[in-house]
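Aggregate trends can hide what the representation actually does to any particular protein. This step matters because it turns folding into a mapping between discrete strings. For completeness, the protein is quoted in full, as a sequence line and a line of structure tokens:
=====
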Amino acid sequence: MKCILALVLGLSISAWAADEAPTGLAYKGINIQLGGFLASEIVNRSNNMASDIGTNFRAIPYANSTGSGMSEFRGTERQSRFSILAQGDTDFGVHMAGYYELDFLGTSPNSNANESNSYTVRTRNVYMTMDDDNSGFHLLTGQNWSLVTMNTKGISPRNEAIPTTIDAQYAVGFNWARQWQIRAVKDWRKVFWAAVSLENAQTLVAGTVDPLMGNSNSLSGAAFGGGTTFSFNKYPDVVAKFAYESGFGHFEAFVLARNFQSHYGGAGATAQTSKQNLWTEGVGLGATIPIVPQMFDLSLSGLTGKGMGRYGTSQLPDATFSNDGSLTPLNSTQYLAQLAYHAGHGWEVYATYGMESVAGNTFSSTSTFGYGDNVVATNAGCNIYGSAICAPNLKGTTQENVGFWWTFYKGSYGFTKLGAQYSHTLLSTFSDTAYIAPKATQDMYFASLRYYPF
């Protein structure tokens, strides 16, 4: 019993100094910090999507849908989060760290909202880092926010510029992915930064094609969820980024290179097939500027290029099928602007505007190949309730958000935040044979109460 009391007392003393905030738990020379929050949140949507706190922007219903005009209320705790950060220093002055972060937005075949509301834990980030202050070299490997995601300071993990929205899918125009990567970074006196990252690849393909003529994916195999598809990936996505801390804001630029693979040209038993191997590039910019220091911050980020759709919140397509079954990457552009007002007394107010768009590329006037203006179908039923005659190709999304966070308690037991958000989202589409290009809108109201105990 005395041993147990001594252990508890030792951990408590290392974690809590008198009248000071917790600094972590000391264990075998390693400092362990706990993080995360408990969340109780609600969302109300003008059109029912049967979605939790994360919005699938591509699935906003058109007027023909049974969910159109039927408001949706959801209460949820699933965005609650937990994290562990373990840090230690080697004998050579190198800082080592491991980070694990999870939430409860995973699903399984037996998940339901009828009675038990039992959902699965989901990995968000899990990675290890090595930082050498003497040389300015940094290494990260594991799952983390993609290097395309803008940072608030330098190029370092846990400094990502994440929109402060309540929506778990964040905001239209936000460039991001959370995926495996190996990242090497070099800084020069914490002013200039350069980094390169090799990251898991995946291709979003839109359009139909005879499976004998072309294929770009396969069904999931071992240790992946059944029924899902994974694209053919021969090489990882490659990101190179440069950042500058000017003393008056953070500025960065990056280049993203992606490889597209397909197996095509096999129509007929004796036809010759080909294997596609195509590289494309995109460029991105980002900046965080203190318009009025300590009061107003403006954040701007964007990405444009061929085959960049999967790095946007709306998940617009990367590519479509050509007439011969090969892939043709689609030009896309996405950007996000956020203005933050630090009002004082625990108040933070924000407003965002974001846009994502993809260019069409239709290859035939008599087939369904390609993506863009639909030359063989009609969208005449998109505005008629219950009609099945509605299959538009999505052209783009735009969204405005306004919201606030109020930290109404901060003390020895952590802190508590209250937040609210309103968003308006618009889907635009390509036209059909009759030049009908339907639109869809969604108005959403969010509220969140979060307790940060650590």
Observations:
- The first strand starts at residue 25 and ends at 27.
- The CA atoms of residues 64 and 385 lie 4 Å apart.
- The chain has one domain: 23-110+131-452.
